Please model this.
Amino acid sequence: MTDIASLRPLAAVMIPFVGIFAIIAARSRPNIREAATILTALSTLAVIGSLVPAVLNGTVHVFRLGVFVPGIEIALRADALGMLFALLASLLWLITSFYSIGYMRGLDEHAQTRYFASFAASVGTAVGVAFASNLIALYIFYELLTVATYPLVTHDETQTARRAGRKYLAYTFGGGIAVLTGTAIVFWTTGSVTFTAGGIAALGTTDPVIARAGFALLAGGFGVKAALIPVHSWLPDAMVAPTPVSGLLHAVAVVKSGVFGIARTVLDVYGPATVGDLGVGIVLATVAGATILIASIIALRQDNLKRRLAYSTISQLSYIVLGLGLLSPAALIGGLLHIPAHAFMKLTLFFCAGAIHVETHTDNISEMAGIGRRMPLTMAAFGVAALGMAGLPLVAGFVSKWYLLIGSVESGGVGGVFALVLLTSGILNIGYFWPVVYQAFFETQNNADSKPVIEFNMGGRTARTDGGTESENSMTASPVSESNTNQPESPGSHAGSSNYAVDRHPSDHHAESADDASSHMEGTRAWKEPALGNESTWFMLGPIAIAAFGAILIGILPAEMIFLRLINIIVAGVTGVSL
Amino acid sequence: MSETLALLVALPVLTALVPVVLGRIWQRAGWTVAFVGTVLHLALVVQLARAIRVEGTVSYAVGNFAPPIGIELVGDWISATLVGLVSIITLIVLIFERDRNDSSDAFYSELLLLTAGLSGIFVTGDLFNLYVFLEITGLATYALVATNPSPRAAVASLKYLLVGTIGASLYLLGVGYLYISTGTLNMADLSQQLAEVGYTSPLILTGFVLIMIGLGVKTALFPLHTWQPDAYTESSDSVTVHIAALVSTAAAYAIFRVTFAVFTPSFASAVPVALDALTIAALLSIILGSVFAIMQTNLKRMLAYSSVSQFGLVIVGVSVINETALVGSLVHLVGHAVMKAGLFIAIGGLSIVAGGYELEDMRGIAQRAPILSAGFAVLAFALVGVPPAVGFVGKWNIVLGAINSGDWIVAVVVVTSTLLTLAYFARVIERMYFNSPINIDQTAATDGGQARPSVPFQTRALVSILAFASVSFGLVAIQFIAAITPIVGGYLT
Amino acid sequence: MLELIGTHYSYFAYVALVGIGLYAVIESSNLVKKLIGLNIFQVGIFLFFITGGYITGGVPPRVAEGGGPYVSPLPQVLILTAIVVGVSLTAVGLALIVRIYEEYGTLDEKVLSEAQINE
Model:
C-alpha cells in the first residue's frame, strides 16, 4: 500500500465545517440554508467518492497535520477501513439531508439552523473518525462527535430531551475516558498508537495482563457508543431526538463510530493474531452474542416504534462486534459488511417511522393497524428492510449474515454456539418486525389483533395505582418505560376481574365497539387511502425509496457495491487471507 | 540585556505611582497609564524572549551583588511565557473593564502593583525574594478584591487577608528553617547545600512542609482553599478575571520551582512520603473541588471551586516527579489561565444580560447572547478536556506521566476528573441552550432605557478571542512543549 | 531538659507566640482581636529568625574594626523587610475592618455572619 500526500482527506473533513458557517449565515433564509446543507453534503460525497478508485488500487491518500502531543503525529489517512465508514456516512448524509428537510418542515420544528449546523458538524467529525491515522486522532474526533451530536439529542428542549441529553453525555464521555486510558496504556507499553494493518507488533510481546487491560478499556470505551450491553441504555433514551437524527446518527454515524473504533482496535491496533492469543476475542464475541439476544428480546416488548428500532439497532450492532470477535476472515468480512448493510436497512426503517410520525402523528405500534392503506410506499419499504434485518435473501442483511455464519462455524469450537445465536436472532427479528408489517397491511383499526407480548404484565398481577381510575383503553402502552404496568383490558370486554389474558380476550380478536377510545386514537380510526405518491412529501419518500433500494442492491450485487470490495482489501491486508 | 528582568518588576511599580498623582489633574488618567504601562511591560517580555532565544537561560544579579550572596533574577522559557501571560491578561482585563465601572485611580495603581508582584514571583531566583513578591501580590489582591463596593467584598477580602497572611508567614517560617540549616537563600545554591546537609534532616523536612503549606494556601489547594470562593465571588468581574487567571498560577509555579529547583527530585527519592502527601492533597483537591463545584448555584462560586480542582491537577503533575507529567502540568498552567479568564469574562457579560450570576438566571440565555454563550460553551468543553483544545494536552501528558511512574491511582483520578468537570459545566450549558428563558420582566423595569441591556462589544470580542485561543493553543502546544522539555529535563537529571 | 529550656528559651518563646497568635486568630470573635492575633503570630516568626541569627559573643560585621565572630546581617535584614510587610498588612486589614464596621455596624464575627445570611 503506497501513501501519497494529498489534500483530499483534509477537504473531506473540513468541507462540512465550512458548511456550518454557510448554514449559520443563511439562518434567516431557510431555502438557502437547506441548499447550503445539500451542497455541502454533495461536495463531501464527491471528495470522498473521488478517493475510492485510489483506495481500490491500494494507494492511500494522507494529509499530515503535525505533531499534537509529543511522540504522536496526527494525520488523516484514507485507507480502506476508513473509506468504508466515510463513504457510508457521507452518502447517507446526503440522503438524510433531503429527508431532514421534509421532516423538519413537516413538523414545523424550531431551531432548524442549530439542527442543520450540528448535523453538518456531526458528519464532519464522523469523517474525521474514519480518516484518523492513530488512536489519538480517533479520540479527538470521537469526543468532538459527542459534542456535536449533543445539541441534536436535546433538540426538543423538553424535560425528557434534556434528561436524555445528560444521559448521553455521561455515557459517551465515560466511554471516552476508558478510551483515553486505554490509549495511554498502549502508548506507554509500545511507544506507538498508529494504526498498522495486522496490529502494532509490540503489543504481541508485552505483558498479557497489561495488553488485556488496554484491550478491555479500548473495547469497553468504544463499546459505549457501540451500545454493547450493559452500557447500551443511552440509545433508547436518545430516541427522543428528531427521527432523522435517530436514523443517521444513532443508527449510522454515532453507533457506527463506536463499532468502527472496536474494528480499529481489533484489526489495526492489536491485530487478529494478538487478539486471539490474548483470548479477549472470545470475550468480546460473548458480550456481543449476549447483546444480540437480550436486545432482541427486549425489542419484542416495545410499543413505541422508535424504541423498538433502537433495541433492534443494539442487537444488530452486535452482529458487527461478533464478527470482529470471532476473528476468522469470513467472520471479519461478515461483520464489516454488516456496517453498510445494517446502515441502509436501519435508515430505511427509521425514515419510515419518521414519515409515519409526520403524516399521522402516531408513534406506537398498537395504533398503527391498517396504516399500510394510508402509507403504502412507506410500509412497503419498511417491509423490505425488515426482511433484510431478519436475514432473508435478496436484501443486504442476508449477505453479511451468510459470511458471519460461515465465519462462526469456521472458528471452530465455540463458534457453533454463535451460529446458533445468529439464527435465533433472525427468528427474533422476524418476531418483532412481522407484526408491524402484518398489521399495517392486513388489519384495520377496527379489526386488530391484540398484542399480548407488549401488553402482558410481567409478574402476573395487574398493578393498580392507588386512587386512580382504571384506564378505559387497552392500547396505551407507555412508550418511555420498558416495563409495562398498564392494565390490559380490551375494549368491549367487561370480564374485568380476571387477570389472565386468555380469559379476558376469549377470541383474541377485537371487534369495534362504538364508544371505544376514539379520543385516544386522535380521530384517525380509518386510514384514508391517498393517491399514489401522495402519501407524504417526496422529500421524505424519495430518501426512503433510495435507502430501501440501496439495501436491495447490496443484497443482490454485493461485489458491485463498493463496500464488499473495500472489505476484501481490509481483511486481506490484516489477515493475509483473501476470500 | 539581562536588566530586562529587573525592569519587568520595576517598571510596573514605578508606573503604579502615576495614576494617583495624575488622577488629580486628568480624569481618565488611571486607565491610560495602566494601559501604557502594561504595553511597555509586554514589550519588555518580548525583549526577554529574544534574549533567551540567544543565550538560553538569562540571569541578573540585583545591585551587582553576585549570587549566592546577592539576589538573583532568572529567566527561562517557562518564566518568560508566564510573565507574558501576566501582561496579556492585564491588558485583557483593562480592555474588559474599560466601560464597565468608574474605577478609581487607586484601582489602577493596585492593578499595576499586582502585575509587578506577579512578575517578580515568576522571575525571582531567591527564596526570600519570593516571599516579598508573594506578599506584594497578596496585598494588591486584598485591596483589589475590596474595590468592589459591596459590603460582602470587604468581608471576603478580610478573610482572604487573614488566611493568606498566615499562609505566607508559614512560608517565611519554612524559608527560615532552610536558611538556618544551610546559610543561603539562593535557589540554585540551596539545591546543592540541601543535598550536603542531608534530606532527612528534620529541619529540612519541616522547612519543606511549611513552605508547601504556605504556598498551598496561596494556590488554594484543599483544605487550604476556603478563602477562594468568597474572594472570587465577591470581587468585581474584572478583578475576578485577573486573580483567577494569575494569582493561583503564580503560587503553583512557586510550588514547582521549590520542588524541582530547590529540593530537586533527589529529595523525592530520599523522602518519598513528603511528595506523597502533596500528591494526596492534590488528588483530594481534584475530587472535592469538582464535587463542591457541582453543588453550587452561583456561577462565579462554581468556577472558583473549579479552580481548586484544576490546580489540584497541576500540582499532581508536579508531585509525581516525572518529566512528561511536569510538562503537562506547565501546559495546563498556561492553558487554564487562558480558559478561566475567558470563562469569567463570559460570565461577566452574561450576567448583564441575565441580570444575575445564578444558574437559574442563565435559562435560555443562548438566544439573547449567542456569542457569549457559544464562547462559554467552547471554553467549558476545552476545560473539560475535549481535544484538540489545550485542556486535553495538559491532561494527556499528566496521565501518561503518571502511568510512566506507575502511579495508577493518579492516572485514574485525573482521567475521572474529566467526567466531574463535565458534570458541573454540562448543567450550565444545558440551561443556556436547552431551557426556555424565564420572563424577562425584571429588565423592563429598569431605568426606562432599552429593554435589553447590551453587552459591550469588547466583552464579546474578548470571549471569542479567548475561546479561539484555548483551541489553537492546544494545537500549537507542541511548540511550547519543545521549548520547555530541555529545561524540565535539566531539573530531572 | 531544664538546661535545654535555659539555653533555647527563645525558641520556646517563638513557639508560644506562634501558638497564641494562631489561637487568637481562630478563636476570637472580634475582628480586631483576630488581626492582633495575626500580628502576634508574625512576631513569633520574626523572633525565630532573629534567634537563629544570634551568635554568643558576636560583634557587628564591621570588618575594619576586627574582632570576634561576625554576626550575619542577613536575618536582621530579612526581618526588617518582613516587619514592613506585616505593618502594611495590618494597615490594610484595619482599613477593611473600619469599612466593615461602617457597613454592618459590628465587629463581632458571629453577628457578622448572621447579618450576611440575612442580607
Observations:
- Residues 243-278 of chain A form the longest helix (36 residues).
- The CA atoms of residues 139 and 417 of chain A lie 34 Å apart.
